[in-house]
Queue: 4 jobs
Job 1
Amino acid sequence: MTEAPADRLGEAAPVGLVLVDRDVTLVQLNARAEILFGRSRRRLMGQPLAQCGPVGAAAAELALRAIAEEREVFAHDLAVFTRDGPMRLAVDAAPDGGGACLSLRPWPESSASPRGATAASAAAGFGRMLAHELKNPLAGARGAAQLIADGADEETRELAELIMTETDRARRIAERWCHIGDIAPQAFAAVNLHGLVREAVRSAMASSSPGVHWHERFDPSIPDALADRDLVLQAVLNLLVNAAEALADSGGDVVVSTRYRQPRPGAPAPDARLEISVHDDGPGVPESLREAVFNPFVTGKPAGEGLGLALVARIADIHGGGVEFDSRPGRTVFHLYLRDAGSETP
């Protein structure tokens, strides 16, 4: 029998297309969906979508909602944990004849700004090369500057010390950049977020200007997070330092809060139900940086390195969580999402 044009178009589509019945059992899928599921069509047909691996389980939740609510449901930046490692998906589900039709595709799409692990991993190789290639020449330059400083007049000594300071900074940048894509987390364990946040606030306060006022608003009912404590502490500290630096000239308030989260449709990391928010009343993220603010080397600070938020995004990704922000003049909020200790290990 000749294949209908619509079937041929669906088979050639660059996204995974899936049709399920009202029981969310697979009725039809295209070749791209086979790739995303990691299974052949022969094995998948007639199976409950929720039992078709991690991708199927994530898509099944959206299909159930679309059928029950009789409306289109969208979820972008879904974290899915497969045998080959974590991946991100965008899933669109629409009711169709009592069942649902779903579109699945990797996220971010080619037209989307890279975030988190996508941006960091793309440049991790460059970071390793940079750190390796700069190590010897930087050490040589610093050694020469040290020799000059030891036997020079005061003015020359000051210049030599400046050279040493800048070479040390260049080495730190290279090392930090290298580690963004290659963070090796310790074993995940239950972490009390309130103790962690208080520790981060104490560290941030020590380096902030006197005009910055700190406030904590905690939800005492939230459970422990499933996390590498040191990494999450670093992520929270980066957000707090950024907020304080935004207020360095004008002064203002930094409010850090915790709560149990109910993700909105399409929000990142819907399974990460614990939220840490950092709010400041500074000038906001410049419009020109908003699409790429989580990308490495993107910064609005004259002396900034542009690595802090890239590191936050990478740490969130490692934990099966996410990070996003909302900003306008006078109000900027960064939200860090984490999984609770009752979740499976990311």
Job 2
Amino acid sequence: MGTEATTQDIELSVIVPFYNEEDNIRPLYEEIRDTLEKIGRSYEMIFVNDGSHDKTLGRGIEIAKEDPHVHMIDLLRNYGQTAGLMAGLDHASGQIIVSMDGDGQNDPGEIPKLLEKLDEGFSVVSGWREDRQDKEFTRKLPSRIANWLISKVSGVHLHDYGCALKAYKREVVEQVRLYGEMHRFIPIYTVWQGGKIAEVPVNHRARVHGESKYGLNRIFKVLLDLFLVMFMERYMTKPIYIFGGFGFLSLALSGLCALWAIWLKIFDGTSFILTPLPTLVGTFFTTGVLCILMGLLAELLMRTYFEAQDKKIYQVKNHNNFPKE
């Protein structure tokens, strides 16, 4: 074992969430340990038990007792990969954070490659499973579609958003709060904050033990989270723009339906009650008014959110020639 470092001296934190991976946790630990010992940086491993029903927790505690570099976090129930990563981030001490899956498919031997790229000045280095060892139609094809769509919508182009093997500088992730499936969007947050991201091909291995926890339904969760991320980035401080936009569109449609109904009445002799247009007028008008009112309410909520917590709507990159507070 390497020399144990104090919390202040730790350079590298490796975070691994586990869910029902009793046969993978020790082999993966040994691989990570051997890799980190060769790197020569002070390190810690943070294992997060995400509500496993098997022997994952017990085996993780055994490892933590054997190796002071290992810290075991046990979550109350299964919250999902993003929550597991967030728990690890909240307890990490390293200046560099490395995340990976607990299923053994990410190769710990690729960690030095990520760190070398990070040392070139990048804020986040993401792994790219160029030769992915997964089923084509249930895993690889949906992933390619999702990656293409995320890249197009966000403007941040990566081949593999879903690869859990990533390295981050601490300042990039310490202010980020993650929900849903949003851990994969950290590179997008990084670019929005002015950081630099890189992507490097990494070895991907077939699963040896256990079963995959991911299904096709996950792609819909990812897409919904993507829309939420884009909404928060573009309209977080001005929600009236999107609600008001829908509101005015509905009011415009209400007006068009009213004009159409009047035109039919005057020039075609069609009674109002013989068409659905009066109903559409009322529906669109009501929807428009409600959207505008919701926008006003959202504006009040956002102002309360920022002012009550003394949050800023901007982030300062650096100060020059200002007196120290």
Job 3
Amino acid sequence: MKIQRAERTRVGLVQMRCGGSPKENLSKAIAGIREAARRGAEIVCLPELFLTPYFCQSEDYRWFRAAEPVPGPTTTALAAEARRRKIVLVASLFEKRTRGIYHNTAALLDADGRLLGKFRKMHIPDDPLYYEKFYFTPGDLGFRAWPTRRGAIGVLVCWDQWYPEAARLTALLGAELIFYPTAIGWHPAEKGKVGAAQHDAWELIQRSHAVANGCFVAAVNRVGLERPAGGDGIEFWGQSFLADPSGRVLARASASKEEVLVAEVDYAKVEEARTHWPFLRDRRIDAYGGLTQRFLDGVGEAGSLSRRGAR
């Protein structure tokens, strides 16, 4: 893939509360996009499924009515902003592909408003209050990277962020900046006991992707307590951030406030990291065949992959 390089760019992350009105959420997102652009951002990313509350807290057929085609009305509205502000936009949407097939999809709009493509979330969780398998078909477009007017960009979505394979393949496709639109938070009853450890793990795994792949990583989360299904709900922990190829956090938003975070990306740091720490060069691609298996039985010599290699 031919990559259109930019020396530097500024990234805007719109950390927001997502209420019950898609119209109001879109207006708030556009306001955040405009603020980021006024502050010099040339690439702006919105949180996961920003048009609605995080409805996956329950299995409720009514929420399928909130889905829309991609491209569709929301991408049309956002394309106008991208074109007017001359910015690249990443927007996570509930995509209706056809009757009975829905995806959690990130659309990528270039600075001329053109829809460059979309990424469909690959890893779909099914945990308490995160019942995404009820709503979303796993992605079938594979991992993606695009040469935008503001650099080579990859996009993964929320649960994808826990998988080093996803980040590695996205980087191998050419991405020098990976975005993770996200909706993640605490179960309020667990926050006191495990909340700090959960957040630390979330940030640490994404910073490690930046180090292992020599790229920038940007995660943008929503914020606030949401209870669309009643009960205790989820307290989204915010703390959107941008990390450089050394894993250093360049900027981080608060845990409780709506905020537009803007920080600079210097793509020369990617070249420097990949030259000085040549993890991509030293990969043993001949020995990783086991990664395509669910689980490898056996330990010691009988279970060794050192002589099997890739089949």
Job 4
Amino acid sequence: MSLRATAEGRLPALIVFGSAAFWGIYWLPQRHLAEAGLTGGWATFGQFFLAALVLAPAIAWRWLRGQPSNLGRVFDTTLIGGGLVLYANSLLLTSVANALLLFYLAPAWGTLLELGVQRRRPSLARLVALAMSLAGLWIVVGEEHGVPWPQAVGDWCGLLAGMALVYGQFRVRTAPKGDDLGILVGVLAGGSVIALLFVAAFGDRLGPPLTAAGLTAAWPALVLITIAFHVLGNVGLVWGASRLDAGRYAILILGDVIVGVASAALLTAEPFGWREATGWALIVGAGSLEILVRPKATG
């Protein structure tokens, strides 16, 4: 295999890991939105819906020119969008530690999907990366809080979010190659619907109801966050979703955790001691292993 082919094979992994790492600072603008008055789960709905509106003209233009839009895969993209929405709202309904641990069991679900559905035996490198990622996650947020058996609504949201995201990505990966822009718009549109349904069902648990004053104050930040994260930040995640197997993808999105923990320690009073540093190093090592060791078959 040529050096160029090897580099091209690693590119999707590198982009997904970097995109997930960028999402690690998402908590900061989210906190700003809440302080501005966009609460009760409406911030999540607003971001998904606004991002879908921003990209809708591009899809319409492609459709008018007879180009494929790939909008027909509603179930797959709604799974991914719904998983992201459930994760975002789980942070409002349970402890951050529980939400992180339950959502980021995703690498285990991804590897199980490959083993059970594709009958693909995980390589030694995958098993090592999986063990490193889960151990690192446990050290960072689990050791102090114990095993977060799902009990509250937020716990179940975190668990189901990881399952939905990985299964949606798995279906996108194993389906015939489609249009990445159409997949992204489908994720955002599906996420908007799930977010709206979630507000209707659990709005009273997600914080104070939305007010006109809160929406007006938060509007500029909402637009900026939507463009930065849900449009630009999601491009790499969606592009990589159709090019990486489920287990590998799920390990690489742990880049979110390492940047989130480090940025919270730098910008807030949250601790960053030996425990956080050890877990951080294990997760970085797992991600690096998945980037550097290219699987022999992409499935």
